[in-house]
Amino acid sequence: MPLQSGLAGQRVLVTAASQGIGFAAARAFLEEGARVVINGSNSQRLEKAIAQLRPLGSVSGIVADLSKKPDLDRLVQEAEQALGGVETLVYVTGSPAPGTFMEQSFESWQAAAALLTVSPAYLAQRVAQGMVAAQVPGRLVFSASFAIREPIPNIATSNVCRIALAGLVRTLARELGPKGIRVNGVLPGYIATDRVRHVFEDAGRRRGVSPEAAQATLVQEIPLGRIGTPEELARVFVFLGSEMSSYVTGALLPVDGGILRSVG
Length: 264
Ligand SMILES: NC(=O)c1ccc[n+]([C@@H]2O[C@H](COP(=O)([O-])OP(=O)(O)OC[C@H]3O[C@@H](n4cnc5c(N)ncnc54)[C@H](OP(=O)(O)O)[C@@H]3O)[C@@H](O)[C@H]2O)c1
Known about the structure:
This protein is an alpha/beta fold. It has a single domain, classed as Rossmann fold (3-Layer(aba) Sandwich). The protein has 9 helices and 7 strands. A 7-stranded parallel β-sheet has the order 3-2-1-4-5-6-7, with helices on both faces. Helix 4 links the parallel strand 4 (88-91) and strand 5 (139-143). Helix 1 (20-31) packs across helix 9 (230-240), helix 3 (69-83) packs parallel to helix 4 and helix 4 packs parallel to helix 6. The mean pLDDT is 96. Bound molecules: NADP nicotinamide-adenine-dinucleotide phosphate. NADP nicotinamide-adenine-dinucleotide phosphate is lined by residues 16-22, 39-42, 45, 65-67, 92-95, 115, 143, 145, 188, 190-191, 193-196.
């Protein structure tokens, strides 16, 4: 049987999608014929992304800061209005500032927790409420990081706060499965975006080497010998965000070129 995504006409919300991983996810769903709403916190970047995506199909944008409750409430309300309900949520988010554990402040922990822990849980609840009310077979896909299995140096707040996504996926999979909603997580490794370029710049600065040298050292640790592309990651979002993965829920799937060494 040929693989068919069945996404034509499906209603998809992708957060943090004006560039990078979220943008590639939105593009991949549009290429499958889905109707897509994208989100970002900066209106100019969001408009630019919509202009790039519009030739591919039905896409609109909602400016909202994912770390703020009023913005999350409005995002869900406006996305449901624009699409007539949400069938797939692809949750991507922004990144807290890099830094070691000892460089953090109370405020930096709070900001990271708001963006990486509270935001996905609250948004998932609001979107799931709509799915349950509409009795649609919903799909929630959370983009996390391979760092939730093996912490990465110099992104302490992310290492600590993002691990909550694993608990969220497993908790929601159990609670929402009986309601026909599947919940899965993706653990990206190093993916070629602006964000990862900043990570290599920061790593280079700390070690007194160029960003290119920092990247080359890191790539030696990746069995496939290179960092990934946003498009390679987006194909996994399409799989988990469609009925191609109809018997998959509660999974945390690494897409990392093999960099994770841990078993389980
Ligand atoms: N690239 C990687 O290798 C990698 C690996 C593992 C995990 N991750 C994580 O994956 C996520 C996406 O990374 P990326 O590489 O795609 O980053 P990116 O290229 O910097 O893109 C980040 C996107 O998030 C949006 N955003 C940031 N803060 C937001 C907020 N508060 N509310 C709404 N949208 C917001 C940005 O748009 P605006 O600035 O306009 O809001 C932008 O569209 C990040 O959490 C990152 O830490 C990345």
